[in-house]
Each structure stands twice: as structure tokens, then as C-alpha cells.
Design goal:
The chain has helices at 16-29, 41-44, 51-68, 85-94, 99-103, 106-112, 121-135, 149-166, 212-221, 233-236, 240-253, 257-264, 269-295, 298-327; strands at residues 4-8, 35-39, 75-79, 141-143, 175-177. By secondary structure, it is mainly alpha-helical. The structure holds adenosine-5'-tetraphosphate (AQP).
Length: 331
């Protein structure tokens, strides 16, 4: 049987990158597989979080999942911290993960930067928690972007190591699910950096909370270059900001990048930005409105997350019991 696991950190308002690169794809996946869509708050605290903001972002993320079309009748939505299997298994797996494997993880090097010695252990162990997220549920498929491929490879290595050590198949080896239609969205202020919740520049992203005026303003302020829009893909290689805005247009309109290049070839940016704004507002405003409706009843959102957590805990329980038994704990 197949099972998909994926998640987003409640580290701020979800943005167009989270939507086009992840949630929009999940909506399609839920018709093909049973899916767990987690709000990975334990991952979020690997970077300092203000408690009230973390809790609010958790509700916002649940509302965003629902507003974008994740159906709680088909898929399980829950916050990671409500299911203790994540942290329990992370500890157990950490005892089978050589430091050398973690030393090779590029995301830790990027996030810790020069202050490596002051980085917290949780940030270093982040990939072990991610392995636990996946392996606790015997997930068969994990949708991954470029930046998470290395972590999934590590999860596969840890699963293999534990299975071999105990000479039994305690864990399914998960496969990456490469989604050909998932777009990688870049910052609106710098086309070489990915759009990110934690980018200090507010105008670097469009969030799912933005109303029509805010979407318009953010697109107006998006960085461009002084030339008309490119006429072919080769030109795009050197014009990263143009490439990003055209990619966003293509993803929101459900058309290919080639078709969108042809449509706008040689046009001034001002005219293109107006069309892009209309498209983004038409696509995102209904999501923003639905999000506000879901956030208007936090009691119901809370109940939904508790129900999701209960279902997730029940799926993980047999795996945790088998692992505890195999490791020699009194059960
Ligand atoms: N810019 C992006 N383009 C396409 N996909 C993206 N994702 C994130 N940014 C983009 C996808 O969203 C999912 C969850 O991401 P996350 O929030 O758990 O972590 P992240 O990738 O680190 O996202 P952020 O916004 O950059 O968060 P912060 O600022 O907190 O680190 C993943 O599937 C990811 O590929």
C-alpha cells in the first residue's frame, strides 16, 4: 500500500512558493494516495520562534491547507508536536546516525552559516527528525524539492542501517516523488534566491494572506530589468527576475513556460505585470477569503487538528511498538 508524507514549517505566512511548489501538488496527490500533511512545528523550533507567533502560524497553516483544497476527509492534517511518535523515533534513529552523515548536509551549513558552534543541536539533527517523520508512518512516497533531496537520501540510509542492524524490515525505504509540475519560485527582490517565509524583505514574496491591493503592490515592486520581455528561453538564463515572473504566470495559468514566453515576447514589463496581477488576484483572492473563513472558527480548526493527530498517532503506533520491541526495551 502507498502512503505520502509531507509537511510545511509554521514559520510565517505561507507564500506562493509553498503553494505552487508544494500544496497545489498535494491537492492532486490526495486523489492518488492516502496522504499525511503535517504542520511541522518541531522542525520550526530549530530556529528561534516566538511562542504566540508559532501557535498562530500553526492555525494559519492548517487554514491554508484547507483553503487550497486539502480535503480532511481524504487526507490527514495535524501539527507534528501533537504526535509523540515523531520525537520518540527521532531519538531512536539518532542513535543509528553517524555524525559524519549529518556533517555532509548542505542545508545545515547554509542555515548555521559562520556561527556553526552556536547553532543548536536541533538544527544539526533536523534531518533525523525528518527521517522519523517519514519512517514512523512507513511512508512510501515523499514529494521533495531540490533542496530536500539530500535529506530524503539520508532518511533512506538511516532506514537501511536500522533494518540491517536488527535483520528485519522495520522500515519501508521511502521513494522520492519528483513532481514535474512543481515550480520553484524565486524571491521577487532577487531572482537568484528562493522565495522564503523568513526572508527579511517583505516585498520578496506574495503570501496566501495578501489581499488584492497587497498582491498588486508586491508585483508592482517586483524587481525587473530595463529590457522588454524575452523572446525565447535562452534569454531567460541571464534574466532571472524575468524568468521568475514568467514562471509564476505559467504556474498560475496552468500553461507551459514556452507558451507564456510567446504570449508576452517583446512586451514592456508594465503591461505584463498588469496581466500577472490580474491572474494572481483571480487565483489567490478566493484562497485568501476561504482562509479567513476557516480562521474565523479556530475552535473547529483545533478540533480538526486534534482529530488528524489522533489518526496519525494510530498509524504510527504499530511501527513504534515494533521498533521498541526490536531494540530491546521493556514493552
Ligand atoms: N520558493 C519555493 N519554491 C517552490 N517550493 C518551495 N517550498 C518552499 N519554498 C519554495 C516548498 O514548500 C514546502 C515546505 O517548505 P518549508 O516551509 O517546510 O521549508 P522551506 O523550504 O525552508 O520554506 P521557507 O519558506 O524557505 O521557510 P523558512 O523561511 O522557514 O526556511 C517544501 O516542499 C518546499 O520544497
Amino acid at each position: 500500500m502507498s502512503l505520502v508524507f509531507s509537511g510545511i514549517q509554521p514559520t510565517g505566512h505561507l507564500h506562493l512558493g509553498n503553494y505552487l511548489g508544494a500544496i497545489q501538488q498535494w491537492v492532486k496527490l490526495q486523489d492518488q494516495h492516502p496522504c499525511l500533511f503535517c504542520i511541522v512545528d518541531l522542525h520550526a523550533i530549530t530556529v528561534a520562534q516566538e511562542p504566540a507567533a508559532l501557535r498562530e502560524a500553526t492555525y494559519q497553516t492548517a487554514a491554508a491547507y484547507l483553503a487550497c483544497g486539502i480535503d480532511p476527509e481524504k487526507s490527514i492534517i495535524y501539527p507534528q508536536s501533537l504526535v509523540s511518535a515523531h520525537s520518540e523515533l527521532a531519538w531512536l534513529l539518532s542513535c543509528f546516525t553517524p555524525m559524519g552523515w549529518l556533517n555532509r548536509m548542505t542545508q545545515f551549513k547554509e542555515k548555521a552559516g559562520k556561527a556553526r558552534d552556536n547553532a543548536v543541536l536541533g538544527l544539526f539533527a533536523y534531518p533525523v527528525l525528518m527521517a522519523a517523520d517519514i519512517l514512523a508512518f512507513q511512508a512510501t512516497h515523499v514529494p521533495v524539492g531540490e533542496d530536500q533531496k539530500q535529506h530524503l537520501e539520508l532518511a533512506r540510509d538511516i532506514a537501511g542501517a536500522v533494518n540491517r542492524h536488527y535483520n528485519q524490515e522495520l522500515f519501508t525505504i521511502p521513494e522520492p516523488l519528483i513532481l514535474p509540475t512543481a515550480a520553484r519560485i524565486m524571491s521577487l527582490r532577487d531572482g537568484t534566491k528562493k522565495m522564503s517565509k523568513s526572508d527579511p524583505s517583505e516585498y520578496s514574496r506574495i503570501t496566501l494572506n495578501d489581499d488584492a491591493d497587497m498582491i498588486r503592490l508586491r508585483i508592482q515592486k517586483a524587481k525587473t530589468d530595463p529590457y522588454p520581455l524575452p523572446v525565447n528561453k535562452v534569454e531567460l538564463e541571464l534574466r532571472v527576475e524575468a524568468a521568475n515572473l514568467l514562471t509564476i504566470y505559467a504556474a498560475l495559468s496552468g500553461r507551459t513556460l514556452d507558451a507564456v514566453i510567446v504570449q508576452f515576447a517583446g512586451m514592456p514589463f508594465a503591461a505584463f505585470k498588469k496581466d500577472l496581477t490580474d491572474l494572481a488576484v483571480a487565483h489567490l483572492s478566493p484562497i485568501q477569503q476561504r482562509m479567513q473563513e476557516f480562521l474565523g472558527d479556530k475552535g473547529e480548526l483545533h478540533r480538526l487538528m486534534l482529530r488528524g493527530a489522533e489518526k496519525a498517532a494510530a498509524i504510527a503506533a504499530p511501527t513504534i511498538a515494533r521498533v521498541r520491541n526490536a531494540m530491546g526495551f521493556v514493552v
